[in-house]
């Protein structure tokens, strides 16, 4: 419809400047003067907009003069449209006769929105205008005016042959009718709605007119709605249902109830829901009838409504449904029982509980418990003696929540009478009540009074156990006496009870029995109780717990007892507990449990004492224990190595503060730790994990909160020689640092722990060095993290057997391809916007490439003859413009290199060439962040550029940083590898997700390569924005594929790209990779470390990698995508190294 054109014109006028200012006649005259001047269109439109806000009748003439100017007309008429003056309306009407087209349509729209009835006679002839935009806009305007003359004209135009105009007319008539309905003229509104219906309008208009008819014709409303609800017209049925729901009209609802059996089930559900929403208690009989419906949905809605409307009279119905129904209907009945409101509900439930059958009793008991009906306790104490076990069980559970301190004696009486396995349930009930009511002493006293009279050994044992859990001191003598009772069941109960005592007082008693070998059963139980009690006493110090566990370990007569100790030890996270567990790793009976306990503790404590943990975990690796435990030990050792640079052995002093001094002022005030010879109370400071950092000194936690103060941290660093180091200091808030008494860093600031630290270069002396930090506290979190890293300095070095060629030291493109650009038989280098001609590497322009944020729109240069013309083209991908594309080599034509878009799937790190579908032609696999896909092409003369590209979506698991491809399972098909698993390509080209590993923020590519020569495919990858180069060994264990992670090298960071090539001509490929320089503009770990390019070969026998230098130091990095080929044709493989620090060729001198 052309009304959209009008809307767009309104939007255009709104983009101009809005200004709110203090107005006066002078300012208005300035704006009028702009309209009368030779000012440009933008200024005049801006003036119109301001006049719309603040103009007076004085502005009308000037605005009217702009109505014929197509460029300013819409801004001018929009200003006049909002003015309340008759002169504004007259100006718009006067302009109608001297305008046409879209300008005239705009004027008509503004007249309509002003509801200017004086214009009706001018507009009516325009309903028949040949310009359908004029006619349709006129219809809309007359609808806004809406007087009787306008309505009559619109009614006459209902049958306009132009569908666009006719639709506008009908919409306008609906508006006329609605205006009448709003002001209460229902008869007139009904007449217009009927006329619209008679004109056979489109479906949406028909439904709107029918709705209006229902709302305006009181006499026919119920009849119309019921007819629609029972009819076959789905649109009207839905609207009728909506009206019933919206209006909640008594007449409509009653009409529906009268025609109940004729209504569809979905309508019946709606009606029942309306009754619930209205809270119509008078309709409850109808709802109860609905409860017997043959339709489950109706029954469920009716049951829910009973829960809303009923006051308790129909508790029996709901309880019966809760007991007899199933699924959603049963759930609805139970919910209704819980939600019933009324002062008699509980009374009705309690009365019914007394006489109902068992299934109903159980439902009522549950409902009373859920409703927290404390007054039901008396009847529940009765049902707790019911003949049916299920009723008794439900009563016990309900009493847990409802009984109080005054009911404890009655509950103990129930316990004494209990049958079979019920004492245990009653024990839990009594404990819940006693703890909730804080009645432990009273309950213990009541049990002690009755205990001697109890003859049932099982019940008596339960009571003794209860005494232990209640832990009242008055019961301890009784429990100790029971330890020597003639009946073994009583002894066992006493041992168990003491094992649950709330403090450590019974430990000697349990230890005495644990040491007595004369009764093995008592000994074993006492050992277990002793272990449990040590573990449960929170006030016992960790070192004391370890001593207790060592004692009981020595006493344990069998492997089961030792295993129990080792399990408990795992919960005491100290170096001593780990060392105790480790002592038993070689004990054949418990070695797996000992190893598991050791590793579990090590995972928790290594950050505080890595040196002590490391040799113990290395012992686990060579022990005869479960592989899963070894893997955990290996992971922890890897983490220790990765975090070994963090300072973990801190001491703390403070806090220090001065009245009326804030954190910034305290920064330069010298407190005792800064003063020579001052007595300072240093104490050990624990560390904890903070995000990715394993060693955070949390001062806020250690020093009990506070603000506007400082604390000091101190550590000692040993060095075998004088050497430079790089300190990375993360602090919240400010920090001042001293090394060996000398200030080396000062940053008085308020900040959280940031992603990037303060970096300080310092020199460690041979021997022990003291590092001290002063950390200020503004408010909230407060702490510090420090890493000590070797300051890496390196002179540029070319590896033995290699020669460096500087292709372009000023190049900052990160991708390069090797191809014979000019078909002279020599391989050239193409990188970004240029290609370099072999053998002298003359530079030639290819194309302009946009740069944004220190990145070019060029993250791959993949050589492939896309269009089949014999000249090698390139394919690529980029992050910022999100485009996969190919670039045509113009050959000898001298034409520019043209870029053709393939797709824009999202941000991409790079793209790689693989034959995904095995058709012998390379495809493109981009590493997309938000989705995953590969792209194949066929040559087709009828397609644009003679090439037809096809996108093949991959499962979403392949999205994100890191991607590769290769035959993982040796089935001859190319699979796709991601950091979280791999996608197996099936025979029909589908994909199966195999989430078998976790690689982290991986490189692109992830390489698929048989590293160890065992015939299956392993994986090689790096952490593209961190330290770490790894391989994942594929194994088969018990017929199942497993993976084992191995470190290759973590001494340098950002191995973002890598490839395999046989550099030494030994028939086996080596791993070639290097540091991507300035990948995140200086924000990656190790960003300022020396650049490097290495290759690694793998010794299969020793299962070790050896690193060889291609280049390190200087400016040679390895970028984001490149190639290794025999570029000079001498029989060995050379390496091209692009990056933000230049483009280089490393020539292999093997031949």
Topology:
Elements: H1 3-14, H2 25-36, H3 41-54, H4 60-64, H5 73-81, H6 86-96, H7 101-113, H8 120-123, H9 132-145, H10 148-156, H11 163-182, H12 186-198, H13 203-216, H14 221-230, H15 234-247, H16 250-258, H17 265-278, H18 284-290, H19 296-309, H20 315-324, H21 327-339, H22 345-355, H23 358-370, H24 377-383, H25 389-402, H26 408-417, H27 422-437, H28 440-451, H29 457-470, H30 476-482, H31 488-499, H32 507-515, H33 520-536, H34 542-555, H35 559-569, H36 575-582, H37 591-605, H38 610-622, H39 627-643, E1 650-656, H40 663-666, E2 683-685, E3 688-690, E4 693-698, H41 699-702, E5 709-719, E6 723-732, E7 735-739, E8 742-747, E9 758-764, E10 767-777, E11 783-790, E12 797-798, E13 802-808, E14 817-819, E15 828-831, E16 834-837, E17 842-845, E18 851-852, E19 855-856, E20 862-864, E21 873-877, E22 884-888, E23 898-903, E24 908-914, E25 923-928, E26 933-939, E27 947-953, E28 964-966, E29 975-978, E30 981-985, E31 991-994, E32 1007-1009, E33 1018-1022, E34 1027-1037, E35 1040-1053, E36 1058-1061, E37 1070-1074, E38 1092-1099, E39 1104-1112, ...
Antiparallel strand pairs: 1-2, 1-5, 3-4, 4-11, 5-10, 6-9, 6-11, 7-8, 7-10, 12-39, 13-42, 14-15, 15-16, 16-17, 18-19, 20-21, 21-22, 22-23, 24-25, 26-27, 28-29, 29-30, 30-31, 32-33, 33-34, 34-35, 36-37, 37-38, 38-39, 40-41, 41-42
């Amino acid at each position: 419809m052309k009304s959209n054109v009008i809307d767009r014109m309104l939007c255009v006028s709104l983009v101009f400047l809005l200004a709110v200012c203090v107005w006066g006649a002078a300012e208005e005259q300035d704006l009028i003067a702009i309209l009368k001047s030779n000012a440009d269109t933008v200024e005049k439109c801006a003036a119109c907009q301001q006049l719309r806000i603040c103009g007076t009748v004085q502005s009308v003439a000037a605005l009217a003069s702009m109505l014929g100017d197509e460029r300013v007309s819409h801004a001018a008429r929009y200003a006049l449209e909002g003015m309340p003056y008759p002169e504004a309306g007259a100006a718009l009407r006067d302009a109608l006769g001297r305008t046409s087209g879209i300008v005239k349509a705009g004027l008509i729209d503004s007249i309509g929105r002003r509801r200017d009835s004086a214009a009706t006679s001018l507009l009516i002839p325009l309903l028949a205008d040949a310009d359908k935009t004029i006619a349709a806009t006129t219809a809309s305007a007359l609808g806004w005016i809406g007087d009787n003359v306008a309505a009559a004209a619109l009614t006459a135009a209902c049958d306009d042959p132009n569908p666009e105009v006719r639709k506008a007319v009908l919409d306008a008539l609906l508006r006329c009718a609605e205006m009448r309905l709003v002001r209460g003229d229902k008869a007139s509104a009904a007449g217009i709605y009927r006329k619209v219906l008679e004109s056979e309008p489109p479906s949406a208009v028909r439904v709107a007119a029918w709705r209006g008819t229902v709302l305006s014709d009181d006499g026919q409303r119920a009849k119309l709605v019921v007819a629609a609800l029972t009819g076959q017209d789905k649109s009207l049925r839905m609207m009728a249902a909506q009206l019933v729901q919206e209006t909640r009209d008594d007449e409509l609802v009653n009409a529906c109830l009268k025609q109940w059996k004729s209504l569809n089930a979905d309508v019946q559900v709606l009606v029942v829901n309306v009754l619930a929403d209205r809270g119509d208690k008078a309709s409850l009989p109808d709802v109860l009838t609905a409860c017997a419906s043959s339709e489950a949905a109706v029954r469920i809605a009716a049951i829910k409504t009973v829960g809303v409307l009923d006051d308790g009279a129909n508790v029996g119905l709901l309880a019966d449904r809760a007991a007899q129904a199933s699924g959603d209907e049963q759930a609805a009945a139970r919910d209704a029982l819980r939600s019933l409101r009324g002062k008699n509900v509980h009374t009705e439930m309690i009365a019914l509980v007394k006489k109902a059958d068992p299934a109903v009793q159980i439902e009522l008991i549950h409902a009373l418990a859920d409703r927290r009906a404390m007054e039901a306790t008396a009847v529940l104490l009765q049902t707790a003696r019911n003949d049916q076990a299920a009723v008794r069980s439900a009563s016990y559970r309900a009493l847990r929540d409802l009984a109080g301190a005054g009911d404890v004696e009655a509950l103990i009486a129930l316990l004494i009478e209990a049958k079979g396995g019920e004492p245990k349930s009653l024990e839990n009930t009594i404990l819940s009540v006693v703890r909730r009511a804080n009645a432990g002493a009273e309950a213990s006293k009541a049990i002690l009074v009755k205990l001697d009279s109890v003859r049932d050994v099982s019940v008596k044992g339960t009571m003794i156990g209860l005494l232990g859990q209640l832990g009242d001191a008055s019961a301890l003598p009784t429990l100790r006496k029971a330890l020597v009772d003639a009946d073994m069941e009583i002894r066992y109960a006493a041992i168990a009870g003491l094992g649950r005592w709330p403090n450590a007082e019974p430990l000697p008693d349990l230890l005495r029995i644990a040491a007595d070998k004369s009764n093995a059963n008592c000994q074993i139980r006492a050992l277990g109780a002793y272990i449990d009690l040590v573990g449960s006493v929170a006030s016992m110090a960790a070192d004391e717990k370890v001593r207790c566990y060592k004692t009981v370990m020595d006493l344990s007569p069998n492997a089961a007892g030792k295993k129990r100790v080792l399990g408990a030890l795992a919960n005491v996270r100290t170096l001593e507990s780990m060392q105790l567990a480790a002592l038993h790793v070689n004990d054949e009976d418990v070695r797996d449990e000992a190893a598991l306990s050791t590793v579990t503790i090590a995972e928790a404590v290594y950050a505080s004492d890595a040196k002590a943990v490391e040799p113990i975990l290395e012992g686990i690796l060579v022990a005869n224990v479960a592989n899963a435990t070894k893997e955990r030990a290996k992971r922890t050792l890897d983490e220790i190595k990765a975090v070994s640079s963090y300072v973990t052995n801190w001491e703390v002093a403070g806090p220090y503060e001065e009245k009326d001094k804030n954190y910034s002022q305290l920064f330069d005030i010298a407190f005792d730790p800064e003063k020579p010879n001052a007595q300072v109370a240093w104490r050990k400071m624990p560390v904890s994990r903070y995000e990715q950092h394993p060693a955070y000194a949390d001062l806020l936690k250690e020093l009990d909160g506070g603000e506007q103060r400082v604390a000091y941290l101190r550590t000692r660093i040993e060095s075998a020689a004088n050497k430079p180091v790089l300190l990375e200091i993360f602090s919240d808030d400010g920090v001042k640092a001293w090394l060996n008494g000398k200030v080396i860093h000062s940053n008085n600031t308020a900040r959280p722990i940031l992603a990037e630290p303060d970096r300080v270069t310092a020199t460690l002396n041979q021997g022990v060095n003291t590092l001290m930090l002063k950390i200020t506290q503004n408010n909230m979190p407060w702490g510090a993290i420090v890493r000590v890293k070797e300051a890496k300095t390196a002179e540029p070095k070319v590896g033995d057997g290699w020669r460096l060629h500087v292709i372009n030291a000023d190049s900052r493109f990160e991708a390069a391809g090797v191809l014979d650009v000019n078909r002279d038989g020599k391989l050239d280098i193409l990188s970004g916007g240029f290609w370099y001609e072999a053998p002298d590497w003359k530079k030639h322009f290819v194309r302009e490439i946009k740069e944004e944020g220190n990145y070019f729109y060029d993250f791959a240069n993949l050589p492939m003859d896309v269009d089949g013309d014999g000249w090698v083209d390139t394919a690529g991908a980029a992050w910022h413009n999100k485009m996969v594309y190919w670039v045509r080599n113009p050959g000898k034509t001298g034409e520019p290199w043209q870029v053709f878009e393939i797709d824009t799937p999202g941000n991409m790190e790079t793209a790689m060439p693989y034959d995904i579908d095995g058709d012998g032609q390379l495809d493109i696999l981009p590493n997309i962040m938000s989705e995953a896909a590969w792209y194949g092409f066929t040559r087709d003369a009828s397609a644009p550029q003679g090439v037809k590209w096809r996108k093949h979506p991959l499962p979403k698991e392949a999205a994100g940083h890191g991607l590769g491809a290769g035959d993982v399972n040796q089935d001859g098909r190319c699979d796709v590898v991601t950091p979280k698993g791999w996608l197996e390509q099936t025979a029909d080209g589908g994909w199966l997700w195999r989430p078998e590993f976790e690689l982290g923020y991986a490189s692109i590519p992830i390489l698929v390569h048989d590293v160890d020569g065992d015939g299956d495919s392993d994986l090689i990858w790096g952490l593209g924005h961190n330290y770490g180069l790894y391989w994942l060994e594929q194994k088969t264990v018990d017929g199942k594929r497993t993976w084992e992670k191995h470190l290759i090298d973590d001494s340098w960071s950002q191995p973002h790209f890598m490839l395999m090539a046989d550099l030494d001509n030994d028939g086996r490929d080596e791993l070639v990779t290097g540091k991507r320089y300035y990948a995140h503009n200086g924000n990656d770990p190790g960003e300022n470390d020396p650049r490097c390019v290495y290759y690694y070969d793998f010794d299969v026998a020793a299962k070790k990698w050896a690193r060889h230098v291609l280049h390190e130091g200087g400016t040679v990095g390895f970028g984001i995508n490149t190639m290794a080929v025999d570029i000079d044709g001498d029989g060995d493989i050379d390496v091209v190294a692009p990056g933000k620090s230049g483009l280089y060729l490393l020539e292999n001198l093997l031949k």
